[in-house]
Design a protein that fits this description.
By secondary structure, this protein is of the alpha/beta class. The protein is 43% helix and 16% strand. The radius of gyration is 21 Å and the shape is elongated. 13% of the residues are buried.
Length: 141
């Protein structure tokens, strides 16, 4: 092999050149916000309901730069499955003013308290943004 073939071209953006021993964390931090946002949006859109929350949580923990990108991209929080009230409130806040798609799965039980009230109550101030509300009740057996 000639030496020209062994050396990567320096015409490529520096975040593409990942030489052995390089600080990949710095390379990730150098990625522009727009491509990261696009990548995150594609990944979230391809998730099944309920999986997006786990993906967002995992991405949130990668680095401060990714956390900042995630915190400033309401598009990523517009569709969510209600698993916990606190998580639902987090999505409502992060989604800003965008239309939202809410998925609720509930096990039918003989509980005295109606769980629908605890779910609907935080949504009241956001009803004008609800594009779809899927409420599924299934028998726990």
């Amino acid at each position: 092999m000639s030496s020209a073939q062994e050396t990567p071209s320096t015409d490529l953006p520096h975040y593409i050149l990942c030489a052995e021993g390089s600080d990949t964390r710095q390379l990730v931090n150098d990625l522009p916000v727009e491509p990261l946002t696009d990548i995150f949006a594609i990944a979230v859109d391809r998730c099944f309901p309920g999986e997006a929350e786990r993906l967002l949580y995992a991405l949130y923990r990668v680095c401060v730069h990714w956390r900042d990108v995630l915190n400033n991209c309401p598009l990523l929080y517009r569709s969510f499955q209600v698993t916990h009230i606190a998580l639902m409130k987090w999505h409502l806040k992060r989604s800003g003013t965008l239309p939202i798609d809410v998925h609720v799965k509930q096990c039918q039980s003989n509980a005295v308290d109606d769980p629908r009230e605890s779910i609907i109550s935080p949504l009241r101030d956001h009803l004008h943004r609800v594009r779809t509300l899927l409420y599924m009740v299934h028998n726990g057996s």
